[in-house]
Amino acid sequence: MTRTRILLVDDEPGVRLGMKGYLTQHGFDVDEATSVAEAQEGFRTHRPDVAVIDYRLPDGTALELLPRLKELDAAVPLVVLTGHGSIELAVQAVKEGAEQFLTKPLELAVLKVVLERLVAQRRERQRLLADRSRAVRTQVDPFLGNSPAIRALRDQAERVRDSDSPVLVTGETGSGKSVLARWLHEGGPRKEAPFVDLNCAALSKDLLDSELFGHEKGAFTSAVAAKQGLLEVADRGTLFLDEIGDMDVAVQPKLLKVLEEQRFRRLGDVKDRRVDVRLVAATHQDLQGAAREKRFRSDLYFRISTLLLHVPPLRERAEDVPVLASHFLAEMGAHRGRGQVELEPDAERALMAYRWPGNIRELRNVLERAVLLSGTSRLSRGALRFESLLPAEEPLGEDLTLEELEHRHIERVLAREGGHVERAATKLGISRSSLYAKIKGWQHKGG
Ligand SMILES: Nc1ncnc2c1ncn2[C@@H]1O[C@H](COP(=O)(O)OP(=O)(O)OP(=O)(O)O)[C@@H](O)[C@H]1O
């Protein structure tokens, strides 16, 4: 569980000492400030979860400080303390944005309860904010199936889940990289904090910059108000950068700085801010190759790739296809208020033999379409329409001659290799010229 950070603003060292001792003992991290000016600076550079502010400060009152803090970040709850319980003061403080007003002498246990409640509310709001662009998903198990490949992935993922180091998730499109990233967050020590998900391929350099780092008012022409970056939203949580291979090279050194120093700067700002995020990055590209060819910074590559998780393509774990398929079919049945749709044996065989270039996403789509169009409770091979241009791979028939069997197998390997004769020949374990000879032979026979 992440520790809650409190900013304590009081000019009396004795009061601060007492409160800090108590709160630290109860699991809070406490930063201190002794004046309006120090409080503003501390709040700006090291954002607390809650600020506790004494009413009277050497250079002003809490009423002056409140709107300034609210301007910096309206989401941080503020608690005001005063020596004399005055209703007018309380009303005024609340008007200026204080969430809570407490009188001195303070019951430390009461303060603790108040802080815990405010922090829980803030975390909930932050979580909603982080999920604003996506429907909240129910937890998906990334390790459905029992193949050695998926069991090995689960073992590795469990080992890296609780660490703070960056993780790089590799795998083909649709194989479940995002699902795994979310699982790392939801099962790990940062689960109470936000999971922020950003697709680097979908944004131009400038947009990516301002989405990630935020900006100050006036940083560029359209920046009419200051904006929090997603790094700040993800503070204490997980930042998931999908398609990191497409991140603009100009943004990459800034991300490296965040990872190395836990600092970043909003566009147009003059000072750094501190942030504590765990990075999970994903890519379907060969990032090492991209780094070698200077399309991706190699220092960033090394920083993010110490913990590497590779999600296997579905075709390398065909035995998991029936498990995944019945999971999707149950889900679809429940969604439509119908019973479970079952697979006929010929459909199951076709699903297991197909190459799934679009992986789990494609499997789900194929089943969804089949369920919609067939309207029956048993799906046969004929109901399946595969997305890829490759022929669906049904098991080779038992009553073929050896020659027909060879012919079909060669066609299949050629299709898999995209018609590349040399690669197909290597796969088949024969020379290119023998493969050509065989193909020519069929052409003669009109095959
Ligand atoms: N283990 C799983 N159980 C159920 N659904 C899954 C599983 N893995 C992936 N999916 C589903 O498959 C689809 C693709 O998954 P996901 O978005 O995680 O893949 P990805 O590898 O991140 O793809 P891309 O590279 O295109 O971003 C999603 O709809 C997801 O819900």
Architecture overview:
Strand 4 and strand 5 form a beta hairpin. By secondary structure, the protein is of the alpha/beta class. It has 18 helices and 18 strands. The strands form six sheets. It has a five-stranded parallel beta sheet with strand order 2-1-3-6-7, sandwiched between helices. A five-stranded parallel beta sheet has the order 9-12-15-8-16. The model is unreliable at 132-136 (pLDDT under 50). The chain has four domains: 4-130, Response regulator (Rossmann fold), CATH 3.40.50; 148-310, P-loop containing nucleotide triphosphate hydrolases (Rossmann fold, 3-Layer(aba) Sandwich); 314-383, Helicase, Ruva Protein, domain 3, CATH 1.10.8; 402-445, Orthogonal Bundle (Arc Repressor Mutant, subunit A). Helix 13 crosses helix 15 (359-374), helix 16 packs across helix 17 and helix 17 crosses helix 18 (432-445).
CATH hierarchy class name of the largest domain: Alpha Beta
Measured by DSSP, the beta-strand proportion falls in 5-15%
Within the CATH hierarchy, at the fold level, what is the topology of the largest domain?
A: Rossmann fold
Integer tally of domains:
4
> Distance N terminus to C terminus?
66 Å
The tally of strands reads 18
Shape: elongated
Query: Could you list the spans in which at least 5 consecutive residues all have pLDDT below 50?
Result: 132-136
What is the quaternary state of this protein?
A: single chain
For the CA atoms, what is the radius of gyration?
29 Å
